Amino acid sequence: MSPLVSTTDLATSLTGAEPPVVLDVRWRLGGPPGREDYARGHLPGAVFLDLDTELSAPPGPGGRHPLPSPEDLQRVLRAAGVRDGGPVVVYDADNGSVAARLWWLLRWAGHDQVRLLDGGYAAWVAEGRAVTTDVPSPEPGDVTVRPGQMPVVDADGAADLARTGVLLDARAPERYRGDVEPIDPKAGHVPGARNAPFAAHTGEDGRWRAPRELAEHFANVGVPEKVETPEESGNTVGVYCGSGVTASSVVLALEVAGITTPDAPATLYAGSWSNWSADPARPVATGDAPD
């Protein structure tokens, strides 16, 4: 099953016998808060989850968006109505780069019945589909969070991946090169990391590119055609971004492209650049080249 779901298929499933829990994860770096967008209109039945306060632990040495504790995540998901084995669809404003964080968290928590809405809220509205300002009161769910079902590394692990495998930096090229850094302590990238901007996954309308196109994109970056488990091939691929949010969409894109599989997903450096750059002892590379 593709990790993506079309607007047409979602609309059909919402009227079916087992409609999915729909979760709105709109957010933008620098604000305003996504909850304001949600209040102006959202998919019928959608529950809003806040990236900063509900899908992340408080910022600190671990980065700007550390992973939430399993207990906190379980509480949030249950309050949103997520049930063990029940389908979930997540969406954001358009390209999925933010909603992918929740897709990844659910998979990390052991809940594999989750898909991301292709094109997000913008695609839904562009097709004239129903939206509402009503805020639902979902029946509490019973999901059990079983953390660790997706691979994660810390800064040392990311450095190892850059040396022995492929480490992808999901940020915009200007941040990768170190031309600008709007929020973190230092500009540049992890030495050895290759730039694979998350914006390359989708077209201008926010819909995802075909698997073949994504596979070509990653091949041009230097990702192996097929990444098996490390024990089988020795190939490993990891991803980071500014704070571990948009990198999740690269993990998803690698799966859509057929390069990784649900059983052998890419690794996430959850602390990402906000964690790496906070340590003055960590080396920094600049320019277009990985090193």
Topology:
Blueprint: E1 4-5, H1 7-14, E2 21-24, H2 34-40, E3 47-48, H3 70-79, E4 88-91, H4 99-108, E5 114-117, H5 120-126, E6 152-153, H6 155-164, E7 166-169, H7 173-177, E8 194-195, H8 211-221, H9 230-233, E9 237-240, H10 247-256, E10 267-269, H11 272-276
Parallel strand pairs: 1-5, 2-3, 2-4, 4-5, 6-10, 7-8, 7-9, 9-10
Helix pairs in contact: 4-10
Q: Which tags fit this structure?
A:
30% helix; 10 strands; 11 helices; five-stranded parallel sheet; 11% strand; alpha/beta; Oxidized Rhodanese, domain 1; 2 domains
Fraction of residues in helices?
25-40%
Order of helices and strands: EHEHEHEHEHEHEHEHHEHEH
CATH first level of the largest domain = Alpha Beta
Shape: globular
Structural class: alpha/beta
How many structural domains are formed by the residues?
2
- Characterize the largest beta sheet: strand count, sense, and whether it forms a barrel: 5 strands, parallel
Spatial strand arrangement across the major sheet: 1-5-4-2-3
Structure summary, number of beta strands: 10
Work out the strand percent: 5-15%
Can you put this structure into words, describing what you see?
This protein has helices at 7-14, 34-40, 70-79, 99-108, 120-126, 155-164, 173-177, 211-221, 230-233, 247-256, 272-276, and strands at residues 4-5, 21-24, 47-48, 88-91, 114-117, 152-153, 166-169, 194-195, 237-240, 267-269. By secondary structure, the chain is α/β, with parallel strands linked by helices. The protein folds into two domains: 4-126, Oxidized Rhodanese, domain 1; 152-276, Oxidized Rhodanese, domain 1. The strands form two sheets. The protein has a five-stranded parallel sheet with strand order 1-5-4-2-3. Strands 6-10-9-7-8 form a five-stranded parallel sheet, with helices on both faces. Helix 4 (99-108) packs across helix 10. Residues 230-234 have low confidence and may be disordered.
